Amino acid sequence: MRKKTVLWLQSGGCGGCTMSLLCAQTPNLFSVLDDFGLEMLWHPSLSEESSDEVIGLLEDICAGRRKLDILCFEGSVMRGPNNTGRFHMLAGTGRPMIDWLRDLAPLAEHVVAVGTCAAFGGITSAGANITDACGLQYEGYQPGGALGDAFRAGAGLPVINVAGCPTHPNWVLETFMMLADESLRAEDLDPLRRPRFYADHLVHHGCSRNEYYEFKASAMHLSELGCMMENLGCVGTQAHGDCNTRAWNGEGSCTRGGYPCINCTAPEFEEPNRVFTQTPKIGNIPIGLPTDMPKAWFIALASLSKAATPRRLRVNATSHRLIEAPSVKDSPLK
């Protein structure tokens, strides 16, 4: 049985999604490739081939002499200057990377945007965006991007946006597994074309600070133990991702590490029009409220929660370490 082939290209970005992928442990990248019958044709950081060998591979794919099943693209697509794409020339070819992308993408059975830069533009499209960077099929929230909204890969799906900055290693690996198994369907992608197996969750789910959130026992400064939504800019109640139920390498997440969630799986997260670690408020009420919660309900629940906050949580919330432990009581539930 022929192995499904994977080609990985990189453009405008930091390579952080590759670094994240290499940290995958159970399973790791190479186990998934072997176990699911995937052949990595080329990866700029992992493969031995270079120069003429890579150019020959790309030419073989374009000429139909080599089958391409999965095209992975990491980093944003640079369209500048003046729509020439010449801000990123693929070394040795004399051609812009965007031209290679547009030649290769229609030949692939599936196209995967690895990370938020590739999906929506991300960090490299922030500010003045002098390179005219965009995602493969989105420019921020606007469909289009480098390939256009109408683009569909050979299997009939649009670009699969495995968004994250960097993306969780297991999100990439699980996407590989589903593509190898031919089990990923259009209905398995959310409205922003992110795989639902992680995008139908919120970062808030499983957060280790949820007890503080429930009682609105809030941290005032970074490194304190309380909930970071009220004062420190955390948007985990609105951000899509299973970061806290699928901890990174079984251990961590941004909020577990003491930093607020910045919603890095979403378009335009890179320019929130505020400091990442400050919560904008109107009348002392946070502007960004939990997904699906009406403002009036939040105000009422927050008032009740604050009034009922146990002393233990109130004390620990603004501390850098646990000051008051839960009391030890004989439970009637046995």
- Mind describing the biggest β-sheet? 5 strands, parallel
What's the SSE pattern?
A: EHHEHEEEEHEHEEEEHHHEEHH
Q: Quickly name the level 1 CATH class of the largest domain.
A: Alpha Beta
* CATH topology-level fold name of the largest domain: Rossmann fold
Which key terms come to mind for this protein?
Cytochrome-c3 Hydrogenase, Chain A, domain 2; Rossmann fold; 334 residues; alpha/beta; 2 domains
Q: What report would you give on this structure?
A:
This protein has a 5-stranded parallel β-sheet. By secondary structure, the protein is α/β, with parallel strands linked by helices. It contains 10 helices and 13 strands. The protein has 2 domains: 4-199, Rossmann fold, CATH 3.40.50; 202-319, Cytochrome-c3 Hydrogenase, Chain A, domain 2. The longest helix is centred in the last third of the chain and has 13 residues, at 295-307. It has helices at residues 16-22, 29-35, 52-62, 97-104, 116-120, 169-180, 196-199, 210-214, 295-307, 311-317; strands at residues 4-10, 38-42, 70-74, 77-78, 89-90, 95-96, 110-114, 133-134, 138-139, 142-143, 160-162, 281-282, 285-286. Helix 1 crosses helix 6. The protein starts with a strand and ends in a 17-residue tail after the last helix. The protein is elongated and about 70 Å long. The mean pLDDT is 93.
